[in-house]
Design brief:
With 475 residues, the protein is an alpha+beta fold. The chain contains 18 helices and 23 strands. The longest helix is centred in the middle third of the chain and has 15 residues. 51% of the residues are buried. The protein binds iron/sulfur cluster (SF4).
């Protein structure tokens, strides 16, 4: 199957403490977060003595059935959906990761990517640690287990002081739940409440499904402990400049979520309005590339006065794999997901609006499909600047060389994708759209990273390994 050339979301986390239907609510929570990871799903639960775990490869609804949920006993639970950004896509990397160490059972769920995971892992291995997965989240559990601190919470904080990079973490023990966000706050993590019980989720859309009330975000560098119905907070990590991932607003998060204190739909509409001002064009109709282009297209339409029409219809019901025809069908991988509405496109001057161009291959196929449906002109508009650099904080961006904007000018990209004109939104406009832009990371557009980063190849060479050496990252 041809791959859909998009940045891949990272992971989604959901936790709940002291609720009679904990596992079922966690199931619904990760169901609402499915867009953040479709490769595996898992839930750990606590019956206050033991932890139970069920996880597997695939969508939440495929992994869990009544029997599996019934085995998740207890009144607290931690759920996770995963797309692998570090570590291969395999069931031993699925989360939560459950370990039994001298401190007792611990389940961990992680969203983000550690920038020093490989170095820490090699040091731990040289000290005799045995890893069961290739996921960098397991490093955190080893650090917790080896800490000499008296309490698990102190050991957790000590581990946080050693790791670098992006993490929104939730840890479940038989008695309580700990949640933490890295000092830069790269990935979102929010607190809510339902029926008097605390809930934690990567995005607030998970709260809406279970009728939970959104209370607040976990702060950068904050560690929260939830036990029964009480919540304690501490700020044990050094202060850093905020660097929230701006791509959460451009593409990853659901438009109905409040992320980093702002509704994603509002940010996307603003991006569309700015795009209409920065790259106006005479056109008959605006066509969003579904689904993430929709909110921005409404903004573009409001600002420009050009009507919006759904000229591309997305098929939402494609599984992880499907049987391809033996005889090749042109642009099959994209066509199976997007179908053009000829009546809307035929003979029209189209503004085709998408959230990003990665390699350019999918954009090119979409342009071909729209052109084949009779479009007279295609003006491609993007609600982000050109992506020129990789992400080290948990988003699966291809290597620099594969990013079309790292080697080609806007004119060259326009020619490559076959559009009549191409316009990218400026970074300044993106940051104005999300408000309070100084709190955001935009390194994939600027190549300026908010933290020190040692690329994994360099970390490997420090340990005398080649890139294909032991534990080489497999995506
Ligand atoms: S580099 Fe880009 S994708 Fe990665 S955290 Fe920063 S803004 Fe987000």
């Amino acid at each position: 199957m041809q791959t859909w050339d998009k940045l891949k979301e990272e992971c989604g986390i959901f936790g709940i403490v002291s609720h009679p239907e904990a596992a079922r609510i966690a199931y619904l929570g990760i169901y609402a977060l499915q867009h953040r990871g479709q490769e595996s799903a898992g839930i750990a639960s606590s019956d206050r003595k033991k932890l139970h775990l069920e996880k597997g490869m695939g969508y939440v609804a495929d992994v869990f059935d009544e029997m599996r949920l019934a085995r998740l006993q207890g009144d607290s639970a931690l759920g996770h959906v995963r797309y692998s950004t570090a570590g291969e896509s395999a069931d031993w990397n699925a989360q939560p990761i459950l370990v039994d160490c001298w401190r007792g059972p611990i389940a961990l769920a992680h969203n983000g990517n550690l920038t020093n995971a490989l170095s820490l892992r090699r040091e731990l291995e040289r000290d005799g640690a045995i890893f069961h997965s290739t996921s960098d989240s397991e490093v955190i559990l080893h650090l917790i287990s080896r800490s000499r601190r008296r309490s698990l919470q102190e050991a957790f904080v000590e581990a946080l002081r050693m790791i670098q990079g992006a993490y929104s973490l939730v840890l479940l023990t038989p008695e309580y739940l700990l949640a933490a966000r890295d000092p830069n706050g790269f990935r979102p993590l929010s607190i809510g409440r339902v029926d008097g019980s605390y809930v934690i989720a990567s995005e607030t859309c998970a709260f809406d499904l279970i009728n939970a009330e959104f209370i607040r975000d976990i702060e950068h560098g904050e560690v929260v402990r939830i036990e029964e119905n009480s919540l304690e907070s501490q700020l044990p990590l050094p202060k850093r400049n905020p660097a929230q991932c701006v791509f959460e607003h451009i593409y990853f998060s659901r438009p109905d979520s409040i992320v980093f204190g702002r509704t994603v739909n509002t940010s996307r509409r603003e991006m569309g309005k700015h795009l209409a001002r920065e790259h106006p064009v005479e056109a008959d109709v605006i066509v969003p590339v579904p689904d993430s282009g929709v909110s921005a297209s409404i903004g573009y339409s409001q600002e420009s006065g050009i009507p919006l029409e759904f000229g591309l219809i997305r098929n939402h019901y494609i599984g992880r794999t499907f049987i391809e025809p033996k005889q090749s069908i042109r642009n099959f991988g994209v066509k199976v997901k997007l179908n053009p509405v000829r009546e809307i496109l035929n003979g029209k001057r189209i503004v085709l609006l998408d959230d990003s161009i990665v390699r350019g291959t999918t954009s090119r196929k979409i342009v071909q499909i729209v052109r084949a449906a009779g479009a007279k002109e295609i003006h491609f508009r993007v609600t982000a600047p050109p992506i020129v650099a990789p992400c080290y904080y948990g988003i699966d961006i291809p290597t620099r060389g594969e990013l079309i904007a790292s080697t080609k000018s806007v004119e060259e990209i326009c020619r490559f994708i076959g559009a009549d004109t191409l316009g990218y939104l400026s970074l300044d406009a993106v940051l104005r759209s999300v408000m309070d832009g100084h709190r955001y990371c935009s390194a994939c557009f600027t190549d300026h990273y908010p933290t020190d980063v040692i690329p994994e190849e360099k970390q490997r060479s420090l340990f005398g390994e080649s890139e294909k050496g032991p534990g080489a990252k497999r995506r």
